[in-house]
Structure formats: structure tokens, C-alpha cells
Amino acid sequence: MPPLKSRTKLLMLFSTVKNDNVRFILGEIISLESEFRSMGRFPQKRVNDTVDNEAHKIELGRQASK
Amino acid sequence: MRIEKLTVENFSSFYGKHEFEFPQQTGKNLFIILGGSGYGKTSIFDAINWALYGEQYESTLVEKTIIDFVNETAFSGAAKNNKGIEVSSTLHFEHNGKHHTISQSLFINPSREDGSGKQISDRQSALYEIDINGNHKRIKALDSFLNEILPTNVRDYFLFNGDRINQLSSPTASNEIRDGIYRVVDLELLQNGVEHLQESARYFRRLAKDAAKGEAADIEEQYSKQAEEHEDLKDQLNNLVAEKRAIQDRSEVLNDKLRELGPAIELQKRRDSLTTHHKLSEERLEEIKAELKATSAIAAMGVSIEILQNLEDQLEEMRSKGEIPSSISERLLEDILEIHKCICGSEFVHGDHIFNELTQRLQREKEKERKGQDLLDLFFEVRASRENIQDSQLRMRQLDEFRAKYDSEIVEIDKELTEILTKLENLPDEDVSKLANNLAAATSELIDINRKINLAANRIEEKEKALKELEIKRDKASQSQEQVQRYQLRERLAQEATSELHRIFEDFAEDSRKQIEQLTSLEFTNFIPTANALSIGISKEFHYDVRDQNGHPALQQLSNGQKQALSLAYITSISRVSEKDPPLVIDMPFGRLDEEVQTNIAKRLPELASQIILLMLPGPEWNEETAKILRPNAAAIYKLDFDENTRQTTIMKG
């Protein structure tokens, strides 16, 4: 039996997220989690910043469409 | 990752520098290190772990510290000159085509003037990448690098011992199984992501609440409160589910014990009944023996029966002739003396010669009667004695039969009792009623916890409804408050990301579980081909789920060896689905396995990883059978020799 291609499987699951902004946030979060795995302290601010950036893009989009 | 070399210095029983090389050889992926108990096998296992994980590994040591690994000969030699020594372990390995070394070093100095104590004066951890020219380039982010190739929290699935295999075969291993799946296939990563996104949503919710004014502030306040309660309820639900799993595990252990005790209960019942029966039989036998003793004295007079019979016959004849007793003359004389008139018609008076003559005759008749009466008594006594002797003889025969019956019955009971007691000695000594009570308590806890779970689920549903209603109000109330709207948008985005990541996590977890289940099942059948009628699974609650061909639970039907084979199948499946392809380092892999399972696992071992280092005990583990199977796949075999006098280990290549 072939081994589980975990990254491929994850990418496939991520592609089912319809909201582009949410998908981008998730990509960033997974990257952060991998980088800081097993570390004592996790940079929560970077998660908040990621969410903030994506929200800002939405706001810009809304303004542009007005 | 492939281990190329291990160098230890003054580590445990290895005095000075020692090296184990693990060269790559096509078609041969096993490296076998053989050594008796106390020869240093486990020290090699510790040295590999310590080189990779340093202080993290030290924190997992039980009943010892890293100081205990300092070689005594090296230390005492240096301490005499008031000098210290270096203790180190270095692992050379290849990863993604690049060569590396990772090492841990301790500098140990005497802590007392007499040189008896030890203290760590310095320690170093270092990871280097070695280029084609042999130049060493230091990698500073040691933890990140290790996280990529073999994170510490999955170490147990690649570097383990026989005890670990045994531990994972117990009914309480479900948490371990779940953790293993979560860690090895990166589910932990997704789970942490969910938590951090939730934290972000909380952060923006707080900002929105602080920024809101007027009615919007009230609604934000309510929304925050409801959202927090919603999160608390979810945590509560998760805790309850975890608690439920723990109770289920506990019940499983109790059931397991009770099932094991099933035969013991029956045997104990039979033993008690036989013991009572034995006691009664012995008492009856004693009574019979006492009666026999008493009867035998009478029955022994059987030889006199003929004499007694003759005597009885003679007396009977006399009796029939009226010789005994004969009271007619006596009564007649008494009548004559009463009426004072003789039978001849003569009258007489008291004191005359007729009266005196008759009185004397009466006296003589009375004497005669007494003798007759005595003979009559003797007749009856003789008869009674004869009958008594005959009865006793009959009773003796009956009693002899009874004694034989009880004797053989007691022998049979003794035989069965001995068999039962031997069987009971081999069964666990548990208090059945206590176990049953504990099981009843666990069942009642389970009912209670299910009720709480339903309650929490209902409350979560209500809370979600309330939150939806508040969302609408929230939108309306904050229409003119731009800053609040901005925070609301961020909070919703973080919430949506949380939900999506949670969904992905669940899909991924289920997919991983299925993959590991499939591999575990396949490998178990390889290990135990005779158990191919069993279906092996890992349930959604992360329990081993073993079913027989009728679909009935059958985990308890597995022998201990089979359970351990299942556990090893699971561990090796975990390592294979991880895609990290690290080596397997197994200390005493066959330590607790029976011969048949050993052979089957030995056959499969070379297929389980691209590099396998086995630390084995000659005899119980490395024997004619396993050596025949493993040797053709071995790229190197090392033998450890231990000198009892110097307490040092030397390495020989076999």
C-alpha cells in the first residue's frame, strides 16, 4: 500500500475551502505552526496580523466595488 | 534520515571512544547489536536518543539522570588528578542527500575534594552539515531541523523498546494511539492551528466590544458573553468526551480482568464445593471407621456362633419339655397350703407335720424354679448374643463397603482438587467482587457522563441559535460605527477560518486513521498469518477493534504475544505513514514475544523501514531460528563484551 501523501492530501483538503481569504489565512497558519512546532512560545500576533491583512483586502475590495 | 555512525565517549560502560558504523549496503538494511543483560545495549539506545534530543531526552529518564551515564573508570582516573572528563555521544547521519553530525557533550568535574562527587561544568549540543569536502557548517536552528526530520514528540514511534510494544498492547492505550496518529501525521499541527485561530477571533471580538458605543456596546457585550459561553461549553464537551473515553478504557481493563477471571471463578466454585464434599466424606469415613472398630469386636466372636447355637438348641429342647421354667408344682403347693387341705383330702393346720412337709416341698420347688429361670434367661441371652454376632458380621460387611466407597471418593476429590489448585495458581489472584463493583461503578459513571454529554450538546445548539440571532442585531446596531464593523469583520474571518480548519482537521484525521488501520491490519496478518480470520481495526475512538468472523469483539481472544504483535504492527504502521522514513531503533524487540510470533516478525522486519537497528539479547531473542532469518538481511552485526572486573564494554564486529 502506498504511504499516505499527507501534504498532497492536505492541499486537496485546502482546495475545498471556497473563500480565498480564508484559504490564504489557513496556508499562513499551517506555515507558522510548522515553523514554531515544539517551540515554547507561539507568535499569536502573527496570526492576528494575517487575519487583519486578509480583512483589509476584503475592505479594499468592497471599497473598489462601490 | 539514515544513521551512518554512532560515536560514544566515556558513556556508561563504554570507556574512552567507541564507534558503531552503519554503512549502506544494497539489499541489507538491518544492523544488529548483540549483548547480554547489563552489557550496554540499552546504553547504546540511550546514546542515540541523547545525541538527537539532548536535555529533552534527559527529562524523560526514569530513576536516573545523565550523570549516571558517566563512565566510572574514566571519571575516577581523571578525578585522582583532580581533572574532569568529557562524556559525549555523536550521531552521524544522512538526510535528503546531505551528511550531518549531531552531538551532545558533557564536561564532568569532581564536585568534592576527595573526587567522589560529579558535577556538570559545561554542556554542548551541536548540529553540523558536512559538505562534500568534509567541511562542517554549523546549523543553529537545531530544534527546527529536528522537527523536520524526527520531532521529539514522535520519537517513541521510531526509537522504542519491548516495554513500549507491551505498553501499547494494553486496553488503556487508546489515548496513546490517538496521540500517535495526531502527532505522526501532523494532525497536532492542524489542531494547534484551530486553537490559534480561535484565539485570534477572541482578540478581535474583544476589540469590537471595547470600540462599540451605545446599543452596539450592549449587543457586543452580550455577543462576547454568549461566544465565550459557547467556547466554554465546547471545551466542556471535549473534556466530557475525553472523560468518557477514560471511563471506557477503565471498563475495558475491568472487563478484561473479569474475563480472565471467568475460568477462575468457575474453578473457585468447584474447589469450594469439592472442599465441602471432601470434609463431609472424611467425617463420614471417620464415623464408619469408629463403628467398624466397635462392631469388629463383636463380629470377631463369630467363631463362637456354633457353640452358642448348640447351647441354644439344647436349652430350647429343655424349654419345650417344660423343664424350664416349671412353676405348676409350686403354684399347687401354695394353693394347698392356703386352703389347709391336702390333695389326699386330709386337713391340716399350721405347724403340723403335713403343713411342715408341704412347706418343705414348696421350698424345694422354689429352688428348682430359680434354676429354671436362670436357664431360661441364659437361653435368651445365648440367642441374643448369637443374633448380635450375626448382625455385627452383616454390619461389618456393609461398613466395609461404605469405607471403600468413601475412601475412593476422597481419592477422586483429592485428585480433582490438586488439578484445580494447580490451575488456580496460574491464574491472576484478583478479588472478583471488587472488580465487579468497580465495573458497576464505571458503568454508572458512563451513564452519567452520557447524560452530561447530551446536555452539553443541547446547550451548545441553543447557544449557536442565540449567537445567530445576536449576529443580526449586531450588524444593525453597529451600522454607523465603522471601527466596530472592522473588528467584527476580522472576528468573523478568524471564526470562518477556525471552522474550515476544524473541518479539514476532522477529514484529515479520519483519512489518517483509515490509512493506519489498513496498514496495521495488513501487518498484523503478516505477523500472525494464522489469525487471518480476524478483522483488525482502529475504531473512531482510537481503540483497537478486533472482530472474529461473526463480527463479534475478539480482542480478548488474542494471546499476549498476539496483542504485542498487534501493537508492533500499529507502531510500524505509524512510522511508515509518517513519510519521514526515519530508521527504526528497537531495544529488545522480541523481549516479550513468544517463539512463533518472534519468527514471523523477524521475517517481516526488513520490510518495515529502510534502516533498522536492533539491540538484541543472545538466546531469548537472537537464537538459531531468528539468526537464520535476520542474518541474510544484516549489513553489520556487532557483539558487545563486558568485563566484570573492569566493568567495561568492548565491541566486536561479528
List the helices and strands and how they pair.
The complex is a heterodimer of chains A (66) and B (654).
Chain A: H1 6-14, H2 20-35, H3 44-65
Chain B: E1 2-11, E2 14-21, E3 30-34, H1 41-58, H2 72-80, E4 85-95, E5 98-110, E6 118-130, E7 136-138, H3 142-149, E8 159-161, H4 162-167, H5 174-184, H6 187-211, H7 214-299, H8 305-320, H9 328-339, H10 353-425, H11 432-477, H12 482-527, E9 535-538, E10 544-547, H13 560-577, E11 584-587, H14 595-608, E12 612-616, H15 624-630, E13 634-643, E14 648-653
Parallel strand pairs in B: 3-12, 3-13, 8-11, 11-12
Antiparallel strand pairs in B: 1-2, 1-4, 4-5, 5-6, 6-7, 9-10, 13-14
Helix pairs in contact in B: 5-13, 6-7, 6-12, 7-10, 7-11, 8-10, 9-10, 12-13, 14-15
Q: Keyphrases for this structure?
A:
heterodimer, A: 66 residues, mainly alpha, 71% helix, B: 654 residues, six-stranded mixed beta sheet, 60% helix
Question: Compute the gyration radius of chain B: what is it?
Answer: 49 Å
Determine the structural class of chain B based on helices, strands and strand pairing. alpha/beta
Give the proportion of residues in helices of chain B: 55-70%
Q: What is the radius of gyration of chain A computed over CA atoms, rounded to a whole number of angstroms?
A: 15 Å
Major beta sheet summary of chain B:
6 strands, antiparallel
What coarse outline of chain B follows from CA principal-axis ratios? elongated
Secondary-structure element string of chain B = EEEHHEEEEHEHHHHHHHHHEEHEHEHEE
**Low-confidence parts of chain A lasting 5 or more residues at pLDDT below 50?**
none
Order of adjacent strands in the largest pleated sheet of chain B: 2-1-4-5-6-7
